[in-house]
């Protein structure tokens, strides 16, 4: 049973790592410009306006979108490495939480997207909890730091 659990976590780390390396690389590939809608009288729904404002706010400062891509690539590579998977999972935790909350609050009608982003977050938390022994030694030392 322990071998099956180990294989499950290896597959989880590799797949989550590959997913975020791909997502990070996509941040550096420019999207082709879309054609403007011919009818300007059609107003998009409020949640679409909020989504565009949120993504536009992330892209507005010229540094944040590429920084997010670098963080996703770095965390993905750390997860793929298996040796530094815990560090990659910690680095990726705010990103997966933000993706989940984006789908929960700004795209609640997109059930498949909400489910997938929930699985990303759950997988990330599982990786962190799987290495709880390492965390306990790192954060909860029995010796005081200062004497």
UniProtKB/TrEMBL annotation:
The chain crosses the membrane at residues 7-25, 63-80, 87-106, 112-130. The keyword Zinc-finger does not apply. One of its GO terms (cellular component) is membrane. It is a multi-pass membrane protein. It comes from the Bacteria. InterPro entries: DoxX (IPR032808). The keyword Hydrolase does not apply. Keywords: Membrane, Transmembrane, Transmembrane helix. It is found in: Membrane. This is DoxX family protein.
């Amino acid at each position: 049973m322990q071998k099956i659990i180990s294989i499950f976590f290896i597959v989880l780390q590799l797949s989550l790592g590959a997913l975020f390396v791909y997502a990070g690389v996509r941040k550096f590939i420019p999207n082709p410009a879309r054609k403007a809608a011919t009818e300007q009288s059609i107003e998009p729904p409020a949640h679409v306006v909020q989504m565009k404002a949120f993504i536009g706010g992330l892209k507005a400062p010229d540094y944040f979108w590429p920084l997010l891509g670098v963080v996703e690539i770095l965390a993905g590579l750390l997860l793929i490495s298996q040796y530094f998977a815990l560090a990659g999972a910690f680095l990726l935790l705010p990103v997966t939480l933000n993706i989940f909350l984006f789908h929960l609050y700004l795209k609640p009608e997109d059930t498949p997207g909400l489910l997938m982003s929930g699985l990303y977050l759950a997988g990330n938390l599982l990786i962190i909890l799987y290495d709880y022994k390492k965390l306990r030694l790192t954060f909860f030392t029995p010796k005081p730091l200062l004497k």
